What we know:
The structure holds 2 protein chains of 2 kinds.
Chain A: H1 3-6, H2 11-31, H3 38-45, H4 49-55, H5 59-78, H6 89-101, H7 103-110, H8 115-120, H9 126-153, H10 162-183, H11 187-201
Chain B: H1 4-10, H2 14-34, H3 41-48, H4 52-58, H5 62-82, H6 92-109, H7 118-125, H8 130-156, H9 166-187, H10 191-205, H11 211-214
Helix pairs in contact in B: 2-3, 2-5, 5-8, 6-10, 8-9, 9-10
Amino acid sequence: MNDDSTSRFTRKGLATRARIVGAAAKLMFERGVANTSIDEVRGSAGVGGSQISHYFRDKRDLTRQVIASRRNDVVAFHTQPRLGALDSFDALQAWADACVADVDTVYRLGGCVYGSLAGELIDADDEIHDDLADGYDEWLDLFRTGLTAMQRRGDLRNDADPRHLAVALVIAHQGGAMITHATGDAEPLRVAVNAAIDYVRSFAPQPGGGSSRSGRRPKS
Amino acid sequence: MAHPDVQDEQRLTPKGRATRDRIVQAAAELIVTEGLAASNMERVRKAASVSGSQLAHYFTDKSALIRAVVRRQIGVVLDFHRQPKLGDLDSFDDFERWIDLNMRYLRRIGTSGGTPTFHALTAQLAKSDETTRATLAAGYWQWIGLLEAAIARMKGHGVLVAQADPRRLAMAIVSAHQGGGTLAFTYRAEWPHADATRFAVNYLRMFATNPAERIPRPPRRPRGRRATTRVH
Lengths: 220, 232
């Protein structure tokens, strides 16, 4: 979160502001940005209308703070201790399992907390697009850093592209979450994240040694 | 059995169908450019240049219109997969062409938004009401079903190994496609969709019977685009 916008508030003010953002984030997750009004956020956060306008210029400003807050949620999820540094096959599998474990409490209710915002704000202005893309950059970098470490250690072959594999992991999650939300079926998310993990695994060195690229010539 | 909405659609004359299509098209564009709240019936009526009674003749309410928008767009997706250039979509060559045609389609519609792609409609509508969500779900199952049948044919021809699960593969491919679309439109760049479709087809290749087909093809990076690091 940007210091300029927060430094003018007291500790208590910051707590109130965080409560408003939290209430807005929850409502926007459950019913979408378009279907969430400032009035509903006010009611849900238990604050007066003048307080909202004290902390946020308008709904757009509030939406930007929700994006920042959801971005922090994504980073916190991916940096939790049980996922290590996302730099081993076990850690990546633990990530996929942790996503699947949240199917009923998160994904079937509103999809991905971050991706459903990004998807809905597809026609927002440039600044909001940049906010959302910055969040994806950070998310992709978390995976890319882990995958690069794996490659350096020899867990992934030289022909593996950590950038591409990081994108595969995030987009599999985003698409799987979207379809699981739309269908109410846990299977698409489960299948998608596990497919991405298996894809990463397919770049592990071959048990027989040598890269598959220099392998035997096919018969047919 | 056909849904009552679909029966209505089938009863129309060619001229009636053209008017109805125009309304659906106008509504689809409004939904993705201005969001659901703004696309009330009056806005749709003006954009489609029809009278209020005409609009009411084709759609009893906004919800019926939204369902028609979603069904139209899944029709576009299914038609895309059935185009002659993709053959029967049951070989790796067909799937490589699927990547190319996806990228060509994206280049044509652009990544700046305004096109009612299926992921864009889902993102706008999935949180609105249960009936709309059920229509989106039906669309996804149709799409997954189409790919599942294609992949089952590949398996039947011995192109894929016995362990290949056509339904899971189809879900993985549609998920990759939708996630790629979401990131492409967020970044307003093509590379996420290039990575997504490449991942989808390389994942399918993991189940190839022929070892040469199993080798992952490298992702192609659209030129002039930086990947995950951007200028701030």
